[in-house]
Model the fold of this input.
Amino acid sequence: MQQAVSLIKSSSTILLTGHLRADGDCLGAQIVLYHALSAMGKEVQIMLPNLPDQRYGFLEQKTPWKIFDGELPEYDLLIACDCNELGRLGGMVPEILKRSQPKMVVDHHIMMTPDTWDAAFHDVEAAASGILAIELAQLLGAESLPLAAYEAAFVALMTDTGWLKYSNSDQRSFDMASYLVARGVDSSRIYDLVYQQLEDGRPLGVAAALQNLQYHADGKIAVAWVTNDLLTAGNGSLDDTDEVLDIIRAVANVEAVALLCERDAGQIKVSFRSKTILDVNKVARRIGGGGHARAAGASFERSVGMPEAVAQTLEVLLDEFATQ
Amino acid sequence: MQQAVSLIKSSSTILLTGHLRADGDCLGAQIVLYHALSAMGKEVQIMLPNLPDQRYGFLEQKTPWKIFDGELPEYDLLIACDCNELGRLGGMVPEILKRSQPKMVVDHHIMMTPDTWDAAFHDVEAAASGILAIELAQLLGAESLPLAAYEAAFVALMTDTGWLKYSNSDQRSFDMASYLVARGVDSSRIYDLVYQQLEDGRPLGVAAALQNLQYHADGKIAVAWVTNDLLTAGNGSLDDTDEVLDIIRAVANVEAVALLCERDAGQIKVSFRSKTILDVNKVARRIGGGGHARAAGASFERSVGMPEAVAQTLEVLLDEFATQ
Done:
């Protein structure tokens, strides 16, 4: 940790970045550091490997970022946020490897490649990298930050803890939430910006996706599917599936959920969630995808139609469930 | 406030109660006071006017309550929680009115009938009555309570603030959440107990309720409805409507939502939610109900059918919206 502080103190120009398709935590951590380091007189820039999740686009109104277009600016220090696998910086990797300047991480994921980094502000116990970014700012003496930084930290914390309801919502998370609210963050406004920007067609999209729900294995396994035809028949939309998965997983009996959606080009994508025992990462890997133990996904070959995809999903799910 | 403390201190036998179909905040406030007053050596009993929302039944495992069956026990003091309209105590009202013992309220709703009460621990700024119950316990010197009390306060706080995402989620709410977590409350476990115990038919119930959704006033006003026939045709269930309301309110354009459901005896109930400007308490009052500015509800006369109820709801909603 002290090495991270020293590296920052001795650097004038700092490039902040994060993993591909930056989420709330990845962007939040970078934004906190952007303001903290700027306040220290550093020349700071945020450069993302590609477009972030559009849900978080509102953060750009108060903090500038650039999308990598093949060229990296000069820097004394690179800080990767919410990501300690260099490969997850995408197209930036070859350019970064050409540079001799030091690289550090601010991250809460399990450290996969420690040798890549000259320093790490790293703690797997932190519920979000955004928490670490605030703690690093405090350590650097950047105590008073603009509201934009606190809002970004709040986005980081709340999106990575499922708005303080996942099992990583510990004392430190709640204390950090209070700390940020005390500095002016309006919880309801941030919730609105992150989660209440849906299209008119979304409720009908959710309804369509919940209609073809079937329970298997005594109700422990739930499989639902929705086609583009079904969606568009009611002017429904469903560009992400989180709330449908959440509703099905909230059924007391259900251990694991699969939801199959047809994407634009007719390709079928399946998303998995589980509660406590089933490793859906293993399930998804058997269909060519992957993810985490409780949240994973996969895409079928374009030639695979919905009935076949549903059958294959169910077969793999039941098979993995039987071995638990 | 001081009168409330004096009344409690001078009473030996205390009866706690709350509004009909007790919700998380109503039960939570009573449970906090049950443990705080018991710790002070009072003889305490919780008596509910009828069955609480079944979602909160798990709280009874650690704190006993009784359902009113026509007879009230003897008491020196009655404390109504989360409710300052005597009428909302249902069948208990005539029995209470026969007694000369003092009555007080612990509540955060707008005070409708102050003359009913001998004392009030009342603060409309509090996001939940559960917050007031903890503050009253602190004032009474009952600083260290069993985990069951802190869990109940957490249920009260989190359910009344929509898990810290509604506009009443202020600094005091976040500080209280931290305070409770510091005393041992496991946020994720409570979330599971409150929100992930749904029946198999719930996803289909949600789908049914989202199907008859119509937007009005350029998409600012959304009205949805579901009948028992529609629900049972698909084996759907929908004993509470929070997630349906949340899904519709998450549409960017929507300012206010009304959801009409047919209850067991064919009576239609309407629930309202709004985002930022429309006072749905005023809307609900015009249909004989009430609640808060951003969350309210009402029940129609039994003779009113769904089409008429929908029409009346829409008329009042549009009328109130037009005056904003």
In short: DSSP finds twelve helices and twelve strands in chain A. The mean pLDDT of chain A is 94. Residues 137 and 143 of chain A are 7 Å apart (CA to CA). Chain A has two domains: 2-195, 202-322.
